[in-house]
Amino acid sequence: MSLPHAILTALLEKPSSGLELTRRFDRSIGYFWSATHQQIYRELGKLETDGLIRALPAEQPSRGQKKSYEVLPAGRAELARWTAASQDPKPHRDALLLRLRAAAVVGTAGLEADLRRHLELHQRQLAEYREIEKRDFPPGRDGTEDRLRHLVLQAGIDLETFWTQWLGRALADVAALPGGEPTRPA
Amino acid sequence: MSLPHAILTALLEKPSSGLELTRRFDRSIGYFWSATHQQIYRELGKLETDGLIRALPAEQPSRGQKKSYEVLPAGRAELARWTAASQDPKPHRDALLLRLRAAAVVGTAGLEADLRRHLELHQRQLAEYREIEKRDFPPGRDGTEDRLRHLVLQAGIDLETFWTQWLGRALADVAALPGGEPTRPA
DNA sequence: ACACCTTGTGCAACTAGTTGCATAAACCGT
DNA sequence: ACGGTTTATGCAACTAGTTGCACAAGGTGT
Fold first, then answer.
1. What average pLDDT does this structure show over A116-123?
2. CA→C1' distance for B89 and D20 (Å)
3. Helix B95-106 vs helix B111-136: angle between axes, to the nearest 10 degrees?
4. Residue among A95, A92, A159, A174 nearest A122 (CA)
5. Would you kindly state where each structural domain of chain A is located, as residue ranges?
6. How far is CA A21 from the centre of its chain?
7. Packing angle, helices B3-13 and B73-84, rounded to 10
8. Chain C positions under 7 Å from a protein CB?
9. Transcription regulator PadR C-terminal domain: from which residue to which, for each copy (chains A, B) (predicted)?
10. What is residue B143's predicted lDDT score, i.e. its pLDDT?
11. N or C: which end of chain A has fewer CB within 10 A?
12. pTM (two decimals)
């Protein structure tokens, strides 16, 4: 139940239309809580009927027109409640680690190329995060909002750093293995 | 679509009943692909009708009786195919990072305790991984199966190490902040 | 003026995962 | 022999997320 709260956060940062939200999810919030535009529109509808947000008055609220939303006091209260509430971490699921474990029984054939591809993806993501850091968090400023947001970005940077290092190691190991044959043939 | 493959991997490592699988998911595969017993039973049924696994013959296949499964050649082939196939990484979702970002707009009140709790959880998990490493991967042996499985465990260790460090830093930062008040009051 | 592309909003159907409960046998104390 | 706990299997309903498509308005080229 976090998507509504992701949207509330984004809207508090800046009132937006569905499409603007979608764009912002793609390059910011979506890094740790992704959502498609369909999800976002659906959720905006729910949040509006629940009285947590409202559409900003627009001239022609017809189809094909931008419709911006802002957070109402009830929405802010709900977000504060949710932020403070204790929550258990959800179990992670990582298909790549699973595949490596599978490869231990059925062989590593064909795996290497995809490991390399993942390595590149993570390298690219890491570079992007570093760009954002340089742009949005120059050495000087450290307001309390900035400090928290920087902390979040730092998590992203550290995670991508981990992945690139781990994938590098995994690739070296896989390359050093006998080959694609199962280690325990049927 | 990874649960069936997680199960196939587990069954190839060792044929098991539904409950045994559930237990093994809880302390091994589940670290990176968790599943409840309901999911597992449902999936075992599907895999059986699809001809990828079969129930090992048992005396009394009635309710309340253990029913073990083993992987058929078709199942092994499917797992090998899946392992080798290129897959895009699924977007992660991390509620804790989202909450931190929310806290930047609605304040950090109440957050600290839960950060501390998460830190402890990750420390405990890290300790458990280190135990497993000591037990299952002593310095000597390094068969190719072992090497791959060790790599997976290493990812777990490194990830938990990251989280404990990051949470430590986050706690320090949050504690140093003015208080629980919103940084940008309504 | 018409065809085409982009922007913006949205519904419907599907898939994967979660939660809550039901059932039955076996084992265990009294 | 009875009642409670553990082991073992499973169904049904729900929630969250994904995929595929539809539709309208506005701009752009011809």
1. 95
2. 21
3. 160
4. A159
5. 2-57+65-83, 95-176
6. 14
7. 120
8. 7-12, 15-21, 23-26
9. 93-172
10. 76
11. N
12. 0.89
CA A6 to chain B, closest CA, distance in angstroms equals 7
Dihedral of the CA atoms B75, B86, B93, A54 (nearest 10)? -110
Burial label, A9 (beta-carbon count in 10 A; 0-12, 13-18, 19+): buried
- Per-residue pLDDT of A47-106, as tens digits, reads 999 999 998 865 444 444 678 999 999 999 999 999 999 999 998 899 999 999 999 999
Furthest-apart CA atoms within chain A: distance in Å: 69
DSSP lists the bridge partners of residue B68 as B17
Type of residue at B32 = F
Q: Which residues contact B20 (CB under 8 A, 6 or more apart)?
A: B68
Distance between the alpha carbon (CA) of B19 and the C1' atom of C30, Å: 31
- Are A113 and B86 in contact by the 8 Å Cβ rule? The answer is yes
- Give me the architecture of the A2-57+65-83 domain, per CATH: Orthogonal Bundle (1.10)
Q: How far is A66 from chain B (nearest CA, A)?
A: 25
B172 touches chain A (CB under 8 A): no
CA distance A84 to chain B (A): 5
Q: How does DSSP classify residue A93? A: B
The residues in B 2-41 lying below 8 A from A, measured between CB atoms, are 2, 5-6, 8-9, 12-13, 29-30, 32-34
For residue A17, the surrounding DSSP H or E stretch is strand A16-17
What is the C-alpha to C-alpha distance for residues B164 and B94, in angstroms, rounded to an integer?
Answer: 15
